[in-house]
Each structure stands twice: as structure tokens, then as C-alpha cells.
Specification:
With 120 residues, the chain is mainly α. It is built from one helix and no strands.
């Protein structure tokens, strides 16, 4: 009987050890699953943050492109205004030169009967 008793005790101890092993493995497994889930959650948050920052950068690029396009249009308009102002100045100076020439000719005509030399 004693042999059976020791055998029974050994069998019970072995089965108890086997029964506890899955519980410990399960706890270890659950911890591993939790760590994996936490890493996955952190990676997902990083992905969301990166996507958000990419969208902001894309919007900044679009805004800069629009501002650049608008500034080019404004520059072209200002260039047209500058060219028009330059033409107007050239025309005004030409008109002034013609008026000065006619004035000098008229002044010379007044001085001619008096015998004075023309003003240069």
C-alpha cells in the first residue's frame, strides 16, 4: 500500500505541476499579449500622428503654392503698371522736349528782329 500511496502522491504532484504550468504559461502569455497590444496601440498612435503631420505639411505646401501663384500674378500686374508708367514718362519727356524746342524757336524769332544772338 505504501508503494501505491507514494505513486499516487507522485502522480498527484505531477498532475498538479502540469495543471499549474498552463496557468503560469497563460499568465505569461496574457502578459505577452498585453505588451504586444500596447506596442500595437503605441505604433497606431504614432501612425495617426505622422498622418496628421503629413496632412498639415501638405496643406502648408498647397498654401505656399497658392501664395506663390498669387504673388507671381501680382508681380506681373505690377510689371505691366511699371512698363505703362515708363512709357508715360518717356512720352511726357518727349512732349516736354518738343515744347522746349518750340519755345526756344519762338524765343529766337522774337530776338531776331532786335538783332540779338539766339539763346542756346
Amino acid at each position: 500500500m505504501r508503494v501505491i500511496g507514494f505513486g499516487s502522491i507522485a502522480l498527484l504532484a505531477a498532475s498538479a505541476a502540469l495543471a499549474q504550468a498552463p496557468v503560469q504559461d497563460l499568465t505569461s502569455r496574457e502578459q505577452a499579449i498585453q505588451r504586444t497590444q500596447q506596442r500595437t496601440g503605441a505604433a497606431y498612435r504614432e501612425l495617426q500622428q505622422a498622418q496628421y503631420e503629413a496632412k498639415l505639411a501638405e496643406q502648408d505646401l498647397l498654401n505656399a503654392q497658392e501664395a506663390h501663384r498669387a504673388s507671381q500674378q501680382r508681380t506681373e500686374e505690377l510689371k505691366r503698371q511699371l512698363d505703362a508708367a515708363q512709357k508715360a514718362l518717356d512720352a511726357a519727356r518727349a512732349k516736354e522736349a518738343q515744347a522746349r524746342k518750340r519755345y526756344d524757336e519762338a524765343l529766337g524769332a522774337v530776338d531776331k528782329p532786335w538783332g540779338k544772338p539766339p539763346i542756346k
